[in-house]
Amino acid sequence: EAQVTQNPRYLITVTGKKLTVTCSQNMNHEYMSWYRQDPGLGLRQIYYSMNVEVTDKGDVPEGYKVSRKEKRNFPLILESPSPNQTSLYFCASSLDRGANQPQHFGDGTRLSIL
Amino acid sequence: GNSVTQMEGPVTLSEEAFLTINCTYTATGYPSLFWYVQYPGEGLQLLLKATKADDKGSNKGFEATYRKETTSFHLEKGSVQVSDSAVYFCALRKGGSSNTGKLIFGQGTTLQVKP
Fold this sequence. Notes:
The complex is a heterodimer of chains A (114) and B (115). By secondary structure, chain A is mostly beta strands. Helices cover 0% and strands 50% of the residues of chain A. Chain A has no helices and 11 strands. In chain A, the strands form 2 sheets. In chain A, strands 2, 4, 5, 6, 9, 10 and 11 form a 7-stranded mixed sheet that branches. In chain A, a hairpin with a 2-residue loop joins strand 5 and strand 6 (54-57). In chain A, 37% of the residues are buried. With 115 residues, chain B is mainly beta. Helix content of chain B is 0%, strand content 50%. In chain B, the strands form 3 sheets. In chain B, strands 2, 5, 6, 10, 11 and 12 form a 6-stranded mixed sheet that branches. The relative contact order of chain B is 0.34. Chains A and B meet through strand 4, strand 5, strand 9 and strand 10 of A and strand 5 and strand 6 of B.
């Protein structure tokens, strides 16, 4: 089954404790992206990757890092999480960055930073 | 800049009622347009898409037509069911070498269907 898998689904942690949210897709997609969803602000892009070893900042990259060492994986790293990073996070992938390619989303990761 | 505006929610309907969720966009060039649905506790699922003017996307009884003259992509369904209760997002994506490939989302519209 074609899917985007995120882990963990839920995490409660404390300020400053490094964490990684994993994302994996099995569709051989070149393009991957992270979004955060906040009430009243909708979904905003954090980082994206056009292909292996090619990553770039989205609209809200501060406080986050990513890597793309393999095509299927695109982890999101919070080196020193802060309470303003409490949010619902989604990983997405698409065949490429073409306009007509829909992005496929994972089930989301709800992070609470205390 | 590029943006998507959706009608405010929540929208509450009785089962079998007609649904319209309005969506308008601002963008240069020729974006593709999408509707995504988010059921409680789940991720976003693609509902339908349209890639050029006058295209009609349809799926599961929902449909939307890409209207370039009114920059709109309104979602419609003739007869809603309780199982359609969810949050609906309108989004656009632009192509081209200068674009990041991100989806630009509207705020989302919550639909509640009562039996």
